[in-house]
Structures are given as C-alpha cells and as structure tokens.
Specification:
234 residues, alpha/beta, 8 helices, globular
Amino acid sequence: MDIPPSLTRTAHLFGDATIERFQRLHILAIGLGAVGGAAVEALARSGIGQLTLVDGDVFEISNLNRQPFATQSVLGQPKAMVTAEALKAIAPTCKTTAIQTFITPESVDALLTRVQPDVVLDAIDDVPAKKALLIQCVQRNLPTWSSMGAARKFNPADLRVTDISKTEVCPLARNLRQGLRKAGIQKGIRCVWSKELPSPHTPGTLGSFMPVTATAGLLLAADILSHFSQTECL
C-alpha cells in the first residue's frame, strides 16, 4: 500500500506499517460537536481510512465558540454533512460517510449492524442513548472510546484517558458506570474525563470553551491511534 504524500510526516513518526494499519480502520464516530469534531479531524489527518459520521444536529451560532467545523457560512446546516465534506477536503484518502440522525436507545442495534465498524467513538450527550450504545459495544466486543463531561471545566491539563472503571469526579461518568453495572459491565471502555470539579452551574446553557473540549477530542484520537500503532505515544 502506497503512503499518501500528506501522511509523510505521520509515517516518519509511526512507520509505514502502522500507517497502513490506520488506513484499514473503519471508525464510527457518533456526535460531531466540540469533542467529536476535534477527534475526527485528528483521526482523518492521521491516516484513518474510513469514518462514518453520525449526528442529527445542525450548526448553531452558539457552536462558534468551540466546535471545529462551525463557521458563519454553515449555520443551519447538518453537522454530519458539513463535517464529512470538510474532511474530504482535508484528507481525500479518508472515506467519509455522513448519517444525519440522532441515535436513540432503540436505534443503536440497527446502526451498529448496518455500519459494522472496527471502532466506535462516542461523543454524544444524550445519557440514555449513550448508555445503550456503550452496552451494545461491549456486548459486541467493539473497541470503544467515549467522552465524559467537558462542560463547566476550565483546565485542559486536568483531562485524562483511562478505562471507565478508573473515572472519578465526573457526574456523567458516575451515571454511566451505574447504568453499565446494571448490565453486568464494570470496565472495557476507554474514556476521556477531567479530574477538575465542575464549576458552579448557572441557569441556562452549560458553559464550555474550546481549550477543554478540543483537548478532550484530541486525547481521544491520540489514544485510539496509540492503541492501533506499534508506538506508545501516550
């Protein structure tokens, strides 16, 4: 397999054999907001061969402060479609497929059966859908990476990537651990989470900003690439 010129520097770091492994991977990324958007951009730029992108939302003006593919010109347009087109321009060797839909607990099984990914990247906020997705992934033995809460956080240096059983502090992670335990699942999901206590909540939209959310997405991407490489990069 020929290494694309755009991946020359990545190949110098990882080696040609690892780049070829990346190019054979098919990753299903669900949730293309601040964390998911940063993660899929890094994965595409690093040589992942196929990305199926799932999100039912559209870009809104409130996304401009942190979401990588949010611009004034795409407001009102579907995140999945915009992100897929942007990644095609960035990494034409990466096959991108957009699915404009919100997943629900009832639709998870059909989605995983339809897509048949090698890896799942979960960056959704809907807790019932997130629980159902993670349970299905573990039951199917699908390597899975998941983002925990990134809102109400200031310090990107407090982010960590561990198994879900090692998460602390994060209310979302605690909720998910409880739901997974009811399904007999204690571990087996890689998570990005912050040891920083959430800032006090004010009424209205949860506050968040790009240094934290983008770092969370990049850490997820780095951990996936590390897992499938011959080089420990974390």
